Amino acid sequence: MAKGLTAEELRAEPQDELVKKLKEAKEELFNLRFQAATGQLESHGRLRTVKREIARIYTVMRERELGIVTVTEETESAEGKGDDD
Predict the structure, then answer these.
(1) What is d(CA 14, CA 75) in angstroms, rounded to the nearest whole number?
(2) Which long-range contacts does 25-28 make (Cβ < 8 Å, 24+ apart)?
(3) What is the pLDDT of residues 12-45, one digit of tens each?
(4) pTM for this predicted structure
(5) Where on the phi/psi map is residue 67: left (φ > 0), alpha (ψ -120 to 50), or beta?
(6) Rounded distance between C-alpha atoms, residue 29 and residue 56, angstroms
(7) Which of these, 68, 64, 82, lies nearest to 16 by C-alpha position?
(8) Tens of pLDDT, residues 48-74
(9) Residue closest to 27 by CA, chosen among 45, 4, 50, 7
(10) How far is 44 from 70, CA to CA, in rounded Å?
């Protein structure tokens, strides 16, 4: 999973890509927690980073669900250009 995902980058992603990134982040968090429990974790800061990425993904998904933010305006305008005829 890419480090330092911003909310703006996530808003530009389609829904299925968000679901994929969420799954990957949850798997990484599980592995990090397992390493922490067994004393093998080298970077404790990565735990916090992954948790925040998961929270950002959930936030963007919820914004879309509530209609606060839709898929990027660039995508919508590109789709609308073909329908003007």
Answers:
(1) 10
(2) 25/1, 25/50, 25/53, 25/54, 25/57, 26/54, 28/1
(3) 999 999 999 999 999 999 999 999 999 999 999 9
(4) 0.76
(5) left
(6) 14
(7) 64
(8) 999 999 999 999 999 999 988 776 554
(9) 50
(10) 34
